Amino acid sequence: MTPEKSIFSKIIDREIPSEIVYEDEKCIVINDINPKARIHLLVIPKKPIATLFDLAPEDKDLMGHMMLLLPQLAQSQGLDGFKTQIHTGESGGQEVFHIHIHLLGN
């Protein structure tokens, strides 16, 4: 039995529409549908990794790519500062079990 796709996998596969801010071969960036700041982006890897606990050594380039993308995204949104959040596990506030980085700025 194939596990059910996350909402983010469905967005990546264009099964669910979303406002895409940026996309490349490794990740997609969308506006959060429930923003907690004036700018609230979600940086989502195309590889479905449930949580930070599930990262493997071969994921270091993917995670580095996303981290280096964050300041570029912030600047493209006119931000001169921002904060990031990665929720991990239910007790860490994670709601969608597909790693993603929140980029927030005002």
From TrEMBL:
It holds the Pfam family DcpS_C. The active site is at H100 (tele-amp-histidine intermediate). A motif (Histidine triad motif) lies at residues 98-102. CDD domains: PKCI_related (cd01276). Its EC number is 3.9.1.-. Residues 7-106 form the HIT domain. It is an enzyme of class 3 (hydrolase). Keywords: Hydrolase. Gene3D superfamilies: HIT-like. It comes from the Bacteria. One of its GO terms (molecular function) is hydrolase activity. This is Purine nucleoside phosphoramidase. It comes from Hydrogenovibrio crunogenus.
